[in-house]
UniProtKB/TrEMBL annotation:
Pfam hit, one: EamA
Compartments in which it is found: Membrane
Name of the protein this chain belongs to: Permease
Sections of the chain in a coiled coil: none
Annotated membrane topology: Multi-pass membrane protein
Originating gene: fjo11
Length: 249
């Protein structure tokens, strides 16, 4: 979060005086729900959950974007879209509860962290579309990160980050990968995603989560993660639910 905020800081400084006062609470909401809290939730979940499965669960973002839009922003929801939501939730349940042994049972709860993160993503996407419309994507992205960057920095100094950086072998290399993740997968990706929200619909933009399970599963397999049959079943059902939601009129 700190590195991503720093990467977009020049754009935040350029746009900070242009923001209408009443919009700051929505920028803070987007920063917290679309970036800060999900970053922690995903990090916690992936200490016990395969990255491929985490990527599939992330596809629930489209479903929760639709639900939040209908519940809080007056967006229409048809019975076909509701069917897609039910199908997606069923697939998620299969994915989370699949597996054997106590270790897998424990992993079930870690999967729920990602489900909560996708709910937050859904709220954030709707805030950007309906409360931050008219603002450029780069302005929304940089200012949203600016609202949470200082909080992340304060929290960072309460951890043993500096100690590990100077005493744990490979820590500097790990920091390099975190920096790559922050710049490309958070800062730049956030700008592109917010641009997509502005030029289309929240549902269309969130349907980019179609590709995340494919990429995550591919990297997970290459990294030696074990994927079971029921995991594939859950993945297919989740993607089917997201497909129904996006195709329904």
């Amino acid at each position: 979060m700190v590195i991503a905020c720093a990467a977009l800081l020049p754009f935040a400084i350029k746009n900070v005086r242009k923001v209408e006062p009443h919009r700051w609470k929505f920028l803070l909401g987007s920063g917290l729900l679309g970036n800060f809290l999900p970053a922690f939730l995903f990090a916690i979940a992936e200490t016990r959950l395969a990255s491929g499965l985490a990527g599939v669960l992330n596809s629930l973002t489209a479903l929760f974007t639709l639900l939040v839009g209908a519940a809080l922003f007056g967006q229409s929801i048809t019975w076909m879209r509701m069917l897609g939501i039910v199908v997606g939730i069923a697939g998620t349940a299969i994915l989370i509860f699949s597996g054997n042994g106590n270790a897998e049972l424990d992993n079930m709860y870690y999967g729920l962290y990602i489900v909560l993160a996708t709910i937050f993503y859904g709220i954030s996407a709707n805030l950007i579309k309906f409360r931050l419309h008219g603002m450029k994507a780069i302005a929304v992205s940089s200012l949203a990160l600016l609202t949470v960057g200082p909080v992340a920095l304060v929290y960072l100094f309460t951890t043993d980050f500096w100690h590990k950086l100077h005493h744990v072998p490979g820590a500097w290399e790990a920091l390099m990968y975190i920096a790559i993740l922050a710049v490309f997968s958070t800062a730049i990706a956030l700008v592109l995603f917010n641009k997509l929200i502005h030029i289309s619909t929240t549902l269309f933009a969130s349907s980019t989560t179609y590709l995340i399970p494919v990429v995550a599963l591919m990297w997970g397999v290459l990294d030696g993660e074990e994927i079971q049959l029921w995991h594939y079943v859950g993945m297919v059902i989740i993607l089917a639910g997201v497909f129904i939601v996006n195709r329904a009129k």
